[in-house]
Amino acid sequence: FGGIVKEPPMHIVHIAVEMAPIAKVGGLGDVVTSLSRAVQDLNHNVDIILPKYDCLNLSNVKDLQFHKSYFWSGTEIKVWHGKVEGLSVYFLEPQNGLFWVGCVYGRANDAERFGFFCHAALEFLLQNGSHPDIIHCHDWSSAPVAWLFKEQYTHYGLSKARVVFTIHNLEFGANLIGKAMAYADKATTVSPTYSREIAGNHAVATHLHKFHGIINGIDPDIWDPFNDNSIPVPYTAENVVEGKRASKEALQQKLGLKKADLPLVGVITRLTHQKGIHLIKHAIWRTLERGGQVVLLGSAPDHRIQNDFVNLANQLHSSHNDRARLCLAYDEPLSHLIYAGADFILVPSIFEPCGLTQLTAMRYGSIPIVRKTGGLYDTVFDVDNDKDRAQVQGLEPNGFSFDGADAGGVDYALNRAISAWYDGREWFNTLCKTVMEQDWSWNRPALDYLELYHAACKLE
Ligand code: ADP
Q1: How far is the CA of 27 from the centre of ligand 1 (A)?
Q2: Pocket of ligand 1 contains residue 34 by CB under 6 Å
Q3: How is 307-342 classified by DSSP, letter by letter?
């Protein structure tokens, strides 16, 4: 640790298409912000280059100023600079309107839009006279940075930089990801188990020598139950029981659920196949059968899935109006109240590169119930089955988990969780305290990234 701190500061530039909280779609947006903050806190210089979407949440950008304008590929690109969560961000606004379309993803020409952005970002670094040590790009959407840089920009004077590429989800754009894997100096994915799960994939298989699994962290300032405007009573591990009781009541009140001391299962997710939709539905019914309450916050990019959940919501809101609420929207403040007010957060993903919801759940003293896959396997240790595996990590067991992808699997974990709540409240409360005391921040993973950045810089 000491050695790393004494090294001269590095200059790291992220080229990314998502950034929390101004342009967040999923975990990628969280990681760009929170990894950058952690690395900056270790005294390195970090810049982020992001498209200037018309749908940016500008209220979270401080000191937004016009920086300069340049031409690339016949298009004027206006560059703005501002601060987001204390990070320096350059916003590229091509005047051809590629990012004036009301959304981050979802256009037929997304690949072209982001390809243009990647090229424009490298051009900006060149024209701006920047000499970063590391250019860090992410997923298919900024994958082109890796080969555009190596094929074109190393010749133009940006030669010092090394390219690091992170796979947040191999499911999307595997061809672009494969190409970036070939060109990047170092590559990572977001958990050790996911790195093994995808090691046989053709996009990854021939590049294992430069490929590492580093677990994501969460930002302890952005997710802090002691300092959170969305919850009624600030709490730490010391007053977790009182704090969570107040949040549960506020949540029940807000959503019109019965104000009662019942086990409450929360689900906060994109509603896609990856997230185990059939398992989520099964768990909702099982929880209700066991007398619990369920709150789901989720939105589906696919309108058929959205309609399906609208129907389920109508059904549940008439059959179990005081115990079930499905909120089919994207709602950041509500997500905070659910993390704080739930007893359990369910994450039954079919696959999960890292998963942030289980980590955030623990930060708020909620107990994760997860399927054993990817990063969920690396961060959740079953109270009955994983004592030894937890001990290797220097941790106490912290949740409930299951194998398989059928109803029986979910039941196995969920029934034990709910029974523990009903039958052993003192033990359960201690568990809430234990998970809150575990450190799922970037403290450790940021050092792993720094080591990787240093190794990349030393490459010929
Ligand atoms: P993924 O990136 O696959 O969507 P992650 O678990 O890595 O999954 O990250 C999901 C992030 O998005 C978490 O921060 C979670 O709290 C947030 N999130 C997901 N759905 C919603 C929603 N409907 N409203 C608010 N936040 C959400």
Answers
A1: 6
A2: no
A3: HHHHHHHHHHHHHSTTTEEEE-S--HHHHHHHHHH-
